[in-house]
Write a structure and sequence with these properties.
about 0% strand; elongated; mainly alpha
């Protein structure tokens, strides 16, 4: 009976700031994967050098790693509680 009388206040695990940082991290990760895509050839018999350009080899994986670092920061960021 006593448990029913008490109002249970549901709270989120993180604060709004943490969730906002997580969304930013997900956007950065998605952008990295989008930049990695493409570079294929219409004809499978022809090799396309475009697959080895700076955007796909350096920039996109770096963005993905930065996005994962942002996610880790969002999880570990200190809350006010």
């Amino acid at each position: 009976m006593k448990n029913k009388d008490k109002k249970v206040k549901e709270t989120f695990l993180f604060e709004k700031k943490n969730y906002l940082i997580m969304v930013i991290g997900l956007v950065v990760i998605a952008l990295g994967f989008i930049l990695m895509s493409g570079g294929g050839s219409e004809n499978p018999e022809v090799f396309n050098e475009e697959i080895y350009n700076f955007r796909r080899i350096r920039l996109a994986p770096t963005l993905v790693l930065i996005g994962f670092a942002i996610e880790i920061y969002a999880i570990l960021a200190k809350t006010k509680k």
